[in-house]
Design brief:
The complex is a heterodimer.
Chain A (H helix, E strand, L loop, with lengths): L33 E2 L2 E2 H8 L3 E5 H16 L5 E6 L6 H10 L2 E4 L2 H9 L7 E3 L6 H10 L2 E4 L2 H14 L3 E8 L12 E2 L4 H11 L3 E8 L8 H22 L5 E3 L17 H4 L3 H13 L10 E4 L3 H4 L3 E12 L5 E5 L17 E2 L8 E6 L8 E8 L7 E5 L18 E6 L2 E6 L4 H5 L12
Parallel strand pairs in A: 3-19, 4-5, 4-12, 5-6, 6-7, 7-8, 8-9, 8-10, 10-11, 11-12, 14-16
Antiparallel strand pairs in A: 1-2, 3-13, 13-14, 13-18, 15-18, 16-17, 19-20
Chain B lengths: L2 H4 L4 H11 L5 H11 L3 H20 L4 H5 L5 H13 L4 H26 L8 H14 L13 H13 L2 H12 L6 H14 L1 H22 L8 H10 L8 H28 L12 H16 L20 H16 L12 E6 L14 E5 L24 E3 L4 E7 L18 E6 L5 E7 L11 E2 L4 E4 L11 E6 L13 E6 L2 E6 L6 E3 L7 E2 L8 E9 L2 E11 L5 E5 L4 E6 L3 E6 L12 H6 L3 E4 L1 E2 L4 E2 L2 E6 L2 E6 L2 E6 L3 E7 L4 E10 L3
Antiparallel strand pairs in B: 1-2, 1-12, 2-9, 3-8, 4-5, 4-7, 5-6, 6-9, 10-11, 10-12, 13-20, 14-15, 14-26, 15-16, 16-17, 17-18, 18-19, 21-22, 22-23, 23-24, 24-25, 25-26
Classes of the chains: A alpha/beta, B alpha+beta.
Amino acid sequence: MTEKKAYSKPTIIRHSVGVQNKFGRPPATVPINRLDGFEVSELAEKYGSPLFVLSVKALRDRYRDLKRAFSTRYPNFQIAYSYKTNYLKSVCSILKQEGAWAEVVSGFEYDIARNIEVPGNQIVFNGPYKSHEELTRAFNDGAIVNLDNYDEMQVVEKVASELGKTLEVGIRINMDLNDPPWHKFGFNVEAGHAFEAVKRAEAGGKLKVVGLHIHTGTYVDDVTIYSRAAQGLVNFYSYIQEQLGVKLKYWDLGGGYASHNTLHGAYLPAEQTCPTFDQYAEAICPILMSGPFQAQDAPKLFIEPGRAIIDEPFSLITSVVSQKRLPSGQRGVLLDSGMNIMSSVQWYRYNFQSAQDSGTMLEDTIVYGGLCMNIDVLQASSSIPPVRRGDLLVIPHVGAYNISQSWQFIYLRPAIIAIEDGEVYVIKKAETRDYVQGFEDVPGKFITN
Amino acid sequence: MNNISQFTCPPKVMLRSYGVLAFSAHPIPATLILIATFFHPIVGLMGVVGNLISNITAKWIHANKEAWNAGVFGVSGILIGLALGMYTEQTFRLWIFLIGGSIFSGILSVMLGNFFSRYDLPILSLPFMLIIWLLLLTIGVAESDTLSLTTIPFVKSIDIWLFNILPLTLFEYIKMFGNILFQENLISGIFVLVAIGLYSRISLLYGLWGGILGLITYVFIHGSLDGFHGLNFTLTALAFGGFFIVNNKHAFIFTSFAIVSTGLVDLATIKVLNAISSESTGDLPSLVFAFNIITLIFLFPLKMLPQTIDNLRLTPIPLYLIRSPESNIKWFRRWIGNKAKQKTIITFPFIGEWTILQGNKGEWTHKGIGRYAWDFIIRDERKHQASGFGLELTDFYAFGLPVLAPAPGTVYAIENQIEDNLPGEAVTDRNWGNYVIINHGNGEFSELSHFKQYSIIVVPGQYVQRGDIIGYCGNSGRSPIPHIHFQLQTIPEIGAPTIASRFSEGIINKKINVECIPDKDDSVTILNIESKDEWSLLGLEGESWIFESQGRFGKQKEELSFSTDNLGLPAIVSTDNRLWHLIDRPSFIEIRPDFKTYPSLLNNSVWMNIIGDGVILPKKLVDGFKWHGGKVYKKFNYFIIEIANIEFYIHSDSGLEKVINKKTKLIFERIKIEKLKR
């Protein structure tokens, strides 16, 4: 017996989009009913809904694609995975297996890396705020430290005195590459601050500048920005080599590589605009190779991708709580996951794919999260087929930031599973009340009547 | 050189002459042979006198010093002494003949030596043969019953006793080895056998085989064992059995032919000699004529053949290198090893991980003269070469990627104009498409082809370093999909025959390899080791390291000096002037013995023993580094490189300090460093 189609209250809607026109057939969605060989419904039944699902194969493939693109164009290349985008221990461990180093921006992230036994000298320590203790620990471990500001430089000089040796450091620099420019991190090149910083670091006698770090922005889908950043690095390096005799051991082009998610306001879908890794590499590597060195002595090139490798492998399984009709006539769908676990909805226009055959009659729908908050809107306008309570939706490409930025609010946060080679692994259990309130203490005084 | 020393001959050279008699030039076997000649004391004495005079004469007329030192000019003198003693009556006149004959023998040896050296042929005992017949014809051979040789009574009684208890064939068989010294007793036969056996087991086996085959041949041709003299058979067997040619199964068959032919020549010689003999001359003995003639005849064609890698069945060894059959085999291995190695240290001509589409002797185009080549492509995780459908060249991962110089050199020629083909299409009229040929300055050239149109960024005459970008991968020429073609050749023309080559180092299928020949579908990555601790044996010219070693024969001192070889390349010279080449690779250093440097059975250099046929050691040291040949780990201030059972202790500051062979317990430890005096 076939299951009944989802019931949708009869309304008359104008097919502004959806009918066949001169560009082709209407947008149709193919339901995502399997994830890496497992029925979505079975996964939801067994591990609950909502549920984050990691495809380990997809993660490894993304990483290897990126590595291939750069390592075939630049002789001394290393990926440092940006922990902040997703620092689940399993994710970090898989990438460590693949050969990634760790890019951390706080003592906490540093601790995560050390906890999964990333060697100290395979950690790149960035971030605007690093405490004295954290810096001491990093230098003791031989980590790569990029300095953000003069205050930090002074702390590191203090550390150098305490450790009694000259410390090798990198300097974070920024340039006018995009609009609005990213001037938050490091020292500006155009204003001459960066040159002053390198000069100051060398002059102090306690530091030796061996690296440069530049971060172009986030979700940069214009490869020419990277070309300009690379050219800027080459020019700056040539200048400081000539003026100050600095010889770099590494340079770091930061992160910001785009993933296959469409930004709000983007004209075309990300599938068409997101550059391939080869395009990024082609924009960067030949320019860097023109730097002031022999090919076999090329400084190590770091890039710090996060989103670009971690977005695609994760999907979120979520279920429909209700479908309702708004006074405006627009359809609304209420889900059991809210923006507390989907913070990237403020960036991305996610695809909400049905996990079962719900027909092809797509309708413009406002997607609400499950929080009891008016602002909890996951998507103001999304084409979704008719669904009913209990139906499952799959949101692909949710790996970056959503998990590390999630907050516990109103609901407990869901479980996270990983699938590889036909095996399902729970890499993080669903939260319990004990977990959330375990650290709380109620003084007896508050309890007695 | 003063006048007196010109007329002396050190005992060791005289002794060597005795050793050369039985192809065993080492003091111990030579002494045994010397003793064996003294079973007839007077004859023995005549041998010594002949030896001394012959050697001194040769020296006086400026014989080749090396050959003289090896004792080859004394051989005929000894034999003249022995033969005169054995075949003529003892008179005062005889000693005058001996002196004159020995001087003549010295001169004739040098003359023949000079003449034969053009063909690298040995003089063997040819001078002796020519002179002894002259002498015997003059003096007249004594009737054997009139000879009253004074044999040591003790030897004689043992000989008679053995004659009674041993079967005749066995007795004759062993006695035959004494014939080499014209001795007619069993004990000298045993002495010679022991001497040969001590020096070389291969020679011993060949000698025994020569005796057996000789007996059979003789009986077959002659009909009986009467008048059997086995010396020609055994000598021929010893000469070809691994001594003048490298021992292998072909050499064995060849030697056996030579032995049989010796029988023929010897019997024929006896017939001729008998025919020309008269009352006054007596029966002229055939002696070692057959051996000399057969050895020269059989050796000459082999010496004239060009020795190439493809023609290794019967390999004669240059005379100056010969020590023993065993060392010959070692030399031979090294010789082919060196011949098969290209001179250029090449690394992969690309960055990152690539895959081999077609390796050496590939199925499509790497055939015939082009068989030692590689085609490199890129495949992703899904084994695809392109993203999408691969309809556009730009879909291919490899298209437009940098191509690097595989080794330093000067750009010899380029082609930059040829249009790239669409995927799946290939032109065959301009096979190589856009190409770069690099001259490595050592007679070898790299050829890389199928570059993208107008992408080559070097010009002929430009010097490139290893790893410099020379252009970008394309799809020109006979190339249906973008790939890099690489080959090494000895002629600078495009499409020249390829030569067998190896990549110095690289990561093959995720494992670090040195000297590798990756094959179809192997993934290959250039090796890039990062290390603070790099050591090297290079650049220490003028320094000499003194080592104390604990070998099989107790403690001894050995010295290694850093120097250069005849091409000006870095090398190590050891105490006894042996040479080791130091070959500098990007991440490794190879210590390769010169192909003349090999241990003989009685050499006790621990360094020689440990290095053997050469080692390749990592140059950039990292704790936990592993490659297919061994591993590196750190212990206190030392990095220990472990290869098989050998541990090399490298100090992070001062380099190689100790080598231990855990299996044979040989220890080689540096005790000091000396500056060489200039």
